[in-house]
Amino acid sequence: MIDSLFNRTHNENWIKGIPASMGIALGKAFVLKPELFFVVENGDKNYDKELEKNKLLLAIESVKHEYIESIAKINVESTELATILQSELMILEDEYFLSTIESHISTNTSAAKAVYEEFEKNKTLLKQAENQIFRDRITELDNIEKKILKNILNKQTIPELEQNSIVVAQSISPTDFLWYVDNNINALVTEAGGITSHLAILANSYRIPAIMGVSNATKNIADGDYLIVDAYDGLVIINPNEEIVELYRQKIHQISEHINSLGKLINLPSITKDKVKIQLWCNANSKNDLNTALINKAEGIGLVRTETYILKHNKFPEEEEQFEIYRDIANICYPLPVTFRAFDIGSDKFIDNLLKKEENPALGLRGIRYLLSRKDIFQIQIRSILRASANKNIRFMLPMITTLSEVTESKQLIDEVKNELRANNTPFDNDMKIGVMIETPAAALISYELAKLVDFFSIGTNDLIQYVLAADRTNEFLSDYFNSIHISIIRLIKHITDSAKKYKIPVAVCGELASHPSFTEILIGLGVDELSVAPPLLLEIKERITNSKYKHCKKLVDKLLKNPNEYDFI
Ligand code: PEP
Ligand code: MG
Question: Which of 34, 93, 131, 402 could form an SS bridge with 442, CB 3.0 to 4.6 Å?
Answer without folding.
Answer: 402
